Prior knowledge:
Blueprint lengths: L12 E5 L28 H11 L6 E5 L9 H9 L6 E6 L4 H10 L4 E5 L5 H8 L4 H13 L5 E7 L8 H10 L2 E7 L7 H7 L4 H9 L4 E3 L10 E5 L5 E5 L12 E4 L4 E3 L8 E2 L7 H14 L13 H4 L5 H4 L2
Parallel strand pairs: 1-2, 1-10, 2-3, 3-4, 4-5, 5-6, 6-9
Antiparallel strand pairs: 7-8, 8-9, 10-11, 11-12
The site of S-adenosylmethionine (SAM) has 19 residues, from strand 3, strand 5 and helix 11.
Amino acid sequence: MSLEDKFGRQYDYLRISVTDRCNLRCIYCMGPEGIKLLPHQDILTYEEIVRFVEILAPLGIKKLRITGGEPLVRKGIENLIGSLSNIPGIKDVALTTNGQLLAKNLEKLKEKGLNRLNISVDSLRPITYKKITRGGDLNNVLAGIKKALALNFSPIKLNVVLMAGINELEIADFLKLTLDYPLHVRFIEYMPLDNHDTFWLNRYLPLQVVKDRALALGYRLNSYEGLPGNGTAEIFQINKAKGTIGLIHPVSGHFCSTCNRLRLTADGKFKPCLYWDEEIYVREAIGNPQLLTGLIKEGLCKKKEKHLMAESNPDYRSQVNLRSMAQIGG
Ligand code: SAM
Ligand code: SF4
């Protein structure tokens, strides 16, 4: 039995949001006051998350990503990672983090079975970083990246949400970083989630700007294949670079036809697509594998062919009730 939708897409990748809490307030993710937090009792326990994955692994789920909110603010996260990486059939456990608490936690996360890391770092300039994250300390993230290099994590991906007038002038610095270090920069288009309409309209940048900038700097971008977990990114490498550059452009060019990912939200909802508001509450079914499998299949049947984030669709906002990435699990 496998997880397939009515468009023939097969699913082997599950993103698990372990919390909606976060120690930052990134300007593209939430307002300065944060999001309305879930009561603690509404958040799935680690035992429930492990059981959920034990039921889905025999159906073809092989890769997991732990995300949030900020996953490292949840106590005992290393134990969850340990339990998940021991589930038969699970081949890869990755983490997306803002890096603020990474340096001091990474060794034990690795010991427990964490394979891969995405670290969000939208600026390499302390003041801009602080402005984007509303208070984050760039030194903490850089310490986390250094630790990841020292512990030989590979690949180490750096997530960079590109925004007009905020970090667009840093494209060259990020490109240069891949020349000097085995770091894999993933530029991500700013997606119109949550309630920042005007802000999004003013700040959104299509990622063609990265290619244009690279060419203007005289770099030749070679297509690159072979890095694990590159489902949605267009990957390039500058000649002689140690790292790579990835472009994730859900807005200017969606990749829905190759989507292989599903989501479990922190409050126990199965979410077949990041964009549409279809969510199925599965917490109550976690103790009943047959019921849970039925609900997952029902969710997959409802999954739409594609999202409607494209900038060419001025009505995108009236279509759905969008939740921020911190609520959905980015
Ligand atoms: N707190 C962790 C972090 O920041 O890495 C994990 C959760 S965060 C929601 C996951 C990813 O979603 C981050 O790389 C973040 O930059 C990205 N993200 C959040 N809101 C976004 C938006 N509106 N458009 C594009 N990416 C977004
Ligand atoms: Fe927190 Fe990550 Fe959202 Fe930033 S992007 S506010 S770090 S959840």
